[in-house]
Structure formats: C-alpha cells, structure tokens
Design a protein that fits this description.
Layout: E1 4-5, H1 6-10, E2 15-19, E3 28-29, E4 31-33, E5 43-46, H2 59-64, E6 69-72, E7 85-88, H3 91-102, E8 111-116, H4 121-134, E9 139-142, E10 146-149, E11 152-155, H5 163-175, E12 180-184, H6 187-191, E13 202-205, H7 213-216, H8 219-232, E14 238-242, H9 248-251, E15 258-263, E16 270-278, E17 281-286, E18 289-293, H10 298-313, H11 318-327, E19 336-339, E20 345-349, H12 354-367, E21 374-378, H13 388-398, E22 402-405, H14 415-423, H15 428-431, E23 434-436, H16 440-450, E24 456-460, E25 467-470, E26 473-476, H17 479-489
Parallel strand pairs: 4-5, 5-6, 6-7, 8-12, 8-13, 9-12, 13-14, 14-15, 15-16, 20-24, 21-22, 21-24, 22-23
Antiparallel strand pairs: 1-3, 2-7, 9-10, 10-11, 16-17, 17-18, 19-20, 25-26
Helix pairs in contact: 3-5, 4-10, 4-11, 10-11, 12-13, 13-14, 16-17
Length: 493
Amino acid sequence: MAAKKLEEILLCCEILLKRGPADVSNPQITGVVFDSRKVSPGMIFVAIPGTLTNGHFYLDQAVESGASAIVYDDPAYDKNYTVPSVRVRNAAIALGKLASAFYDHPSSELKLIGVTGTNGKTTTVTLLHRLFNKLGYLSGCFSTICNYIGNEPREATHTTPDPVQLNHTMREMVDAGCRYAFMEVSSHALVQNRISGLTFTGGIFTNITHDHLDYHKSFNDYLQAKKSFFDLLMEHSFAIINADDRNGRIMVQNTKAKVEFYGLKSLVKFKARIIESHMDGMLLEIDQTQVWSKIIGAFNAYNLLAVYSCSRLLGIGKEEALQGLSTLETVKGRFQYMRSNQGITAIIDYAHTPDALQNVLKTIHQVRKGDVKVITVVGAGGDRDRMKRPKMSRIASELSNLVILTSDNPRNEDPEQIIKDMQNGLDARHQKKIITITNRREAIKTACMLARPDDIILIAGKGHEDYQEIKGTKYHFSDSEIVEEIFKTNKIL
C-alpha cells in the first residue's frame, strides 16, 4: 500500500489527546502494527493490552525502532514523545479502524458476510465460499481451517485474524477480483474488537452452546459476546438467525439489520426438512424443492440451510443456489469419513463441545444399520474450559458401545488428569463402556483393532488439525493420516 498521511487515517478515530513535535505533526505512515517487534521506520504503533502483556509497556521501544506515530488509550502514558502521540478512547477499536483506513477500507468493496455461533461456523463459511466460486462469483474466505483469496489457499493461524491481517488480506481479495468474502467471527475476536472498522453486508447465527467458559467466565458473557456482532450490523445489512436455537432471537434484539430466520422445526421464511438420511448423503426439502446433498446430519442440514438463505439474500436465484448446494462435499475434519477394505468406517470430526459431540453421534445412529457398533475416541483440550469434560464423556458413553478416552491437545496440563476429569461424574453403567489410553495414536489404533466389519469409529475433537500441542510445542499429528496408515497396513482390517 502507498504511504498515507497520519491525519488522513486518524479521521476515523475518536481522539482524546494529540501531542508531538510541530515539525513532524503529520508524517507519512507506511504501515500499521500492534506488535512492537514488527515496528520499522514510518509505521504507526498501536498499544493494546494483550493476554500475556500490554502494548503500552513498549511505546518507548516502538519510538526507538522508528515508529512515525504512536496510538494508545491509557492516560498514564501521556507524555512528550519525539513523534506524534495520540490517545484514543479505545486502542483496540482504533487499531481496526486505522488498519481499515490504511488499506482503503477493503471491506466496503466486498459483500462481507460474518458467521458466528458455537458450532457450524467453519462448515458454513467454507460451503459459502465453495458455492459462490462454483457459481462463478469469485470470493474470499476466512476460516479455522484455511483462508482463501479466490481459490488460492493461505494458512489460517486464528479463527478470526487480527485487524491488520484482516484488512491486508481483504485488500488482496479486492485486488484479485473478489467481490464476496465469508468470515468466521469468533467470540474471542468480538471481545477483542478484531472486526472493528469492517463493513458487513450480513451476518449468520448458527447456534450457541457450552464453550469457551474458560475465557468468558459465564454463559451470559459468552452469549453477549456473540450478540455484540449483530448489535454492530447497520440498516443496509441483513441478519440470518437459526430460529430453532432458543437464544437465536436474543441475538437480534438490538440489531439495526433486516432479520430473516431459518430452521428445520419453526415456521420461518427459509425452511428445510430431512426426507432421507444415508451414510453417503441425505435428501432434503428446501424451499419446497427436493435436493440431494452429499453431506449428512441434521446439524449439517442447518448449515446447508444457512448457506442457501445467505445466497438467496445475496441475490442468487433459487434454482442456481439449490443446484450449487447439491454439488458441495463435506469440509475437511467435519464428518469426514474413511472406509477400510473390510467395511469399517472411521469418521473424523472436530466435535470438541458437548453439543457438537452429541450431534455427530446422533447422526451416526440415524444412518447405522442393525447391530453395528459405535466406538468413540475422544479427549478434551488442556488449558480450556474444564466444565465440559465430564459432559462430553457422559454423552459419548450414552451414545456409543465403547468409548476410548485419550489425549487431545493437552497443552500445559497433564493429559492423564484431563482424562480423570472426563471420568468424573460417570456412574458404573457408563464406566463399564470406557477404557483410557493416553497416547492418542495408540487409542486410534486400538479402536481400529477392536472394530469389526460395518462398525463405525468416531474420532472426535481435532478434526482438520495436523498437530498435537504438548507443553508449548506443536508436534505433527493428524487423525486422518493415522487412520489411513492403519487401514492400509493392518492386515486385520
């Protein structure tokens, strides 16, 4: 991007105090950063508090590194610097607005759709991106799995990137010819104001269940974080809400956006029902028209309906949208299934919340036949919400013939203690179905060895992830790669 004058990009900010040398009051700005280690001459440094440290501690360091201006919000740091210093009401909000201004407000040149909720965000944005590209409408995508500029993949490091990365990537999308973009909007991103300064054409609410209470402290805090996204939408935008979720209508209590609802159970504008369900797909009725989908499960029927609803509100015709839906395939790590030569099915799914795990297991029961056994391999992440651990093991034991409790991403916790937490509260009937194998590879291998032809193995929790995080180090680990290796090399299978 071409350099911009400081005063030009400050127009979007709520300035409380501005001071600095008169001879450099309006310098050229060559970039926006919030990490002092990335400061180089010409940049504006924005000091925001983080989870581990506080950007205000590094204001002097940023100036020494050549920052042309600094922005902060703590009055304790009001002093004379050798470069223009600007105190704003909220530095995190200012960061997004400054990044947007520096990159010439790329979100306003896109039809940007944000998707928020506990489950279904990744599937919904990925399917929207695939659908629009298939229909010939070049689009971008921000998801947990991968970011895309058109069909060009970019590594995803966060569910929702930081404001500088977001705006930089959206500028690349616009320059590449994209006119649509679909973005996962996480609750963390909302609390941290990562989407500040963006212009949304619409928003989608999937559902809300127990998750991230290690961060939000209470379910109401988590709900309000999700709701804040719809509070930000403007009159020209739309909000698409899952009417079957009991908290759906709360999301749009204060929104200015035009509200539309979708659902499988409610009498709403965008309605669907499942006519048939099989392991290789399901027959749906959407908008009074039957359509075959290669993706299965009631939870995916909601995702597909959200995709259809959004495409219609973005001006796609009914027949074109339904035809496109019928070509879409499952998203990596989301009910991704593999079969051995003897007919054993392994399903890899990202389900890492009680509700998601229950949805996947219920879907398996809907398509399994006769006395087919269900073996579930599941763990829980370390340094995260501990309250969901026993809930997940109880759901797994109620809906499986056998459960193998194992390690997920233990991070800085003892994986064996996490497994013990999962076992807490299980009665004797449930305990009889459970074995524990801390090593995840061995747990998956054991499940495959115990399975018989036609049995179904669910490997839950990591989905698309290709790593396991232990004591601050990420080691390569892919559930799907391990299953593929076992299915190919184990003669029993």
